[in-house]
Specification:
The chain has about 100 residues and is mainly beta. Helices cover about 5% and strands about 55% of the residues. It is built from one helix and six strands, in the order E-E-E-H-E-E-E. It has one helix at about 50-55, and strands at about 10-20, 20-35, 40-45, 60-65, 70-80, 85-90. Strand 1 and strand 2 form a beta hairpin.
């Protein structure tokens, strides 16, 4: 079930992730915020723990993330203590 609201700055729900040859259905929690210092919208969040993702991605990988509301490119960051990859992007978010 998706918690997406039109014009919202948050999204929690399913997403399709593509990283090179790896294509996965994942669960994400995302947020966005406008940064007036650089004039860009920044989005960020976490991808729920997924063993397939751990084998298909490494920190620094550029990925495509698609939700029911849109798509965007982002960068995989480090893994938090609970095994969730962090993801971030700039520009229109995938929600």
């Amino acid at each position: 079930m998706s918690n997406h609201l039109p014009e919202a700055d948050e999204y929690a729900g399913p997403a399709n992730l593509i990283a090179g040859e790896t294509r996965l259905q994942v669960e994400v929690t995302l947020r966005s915020v406008f940064q007036p210092i650089d004039g860009h919208l920044h989005w960020y969040g976490r991808i729920a723990r997924n063993p397939e993702l751990e084998h298909g991605c490494t920190p620094g990988s550029t990925v495509s993330l698609t939700t029911p509301a849109g798509s965007a490119e982002g960068r995989i960051n480090d893994v938090d203590p609970w095994g969730r990859f962090r993801i971030a992007g700039t520009g229109r978010p995938p929600f």
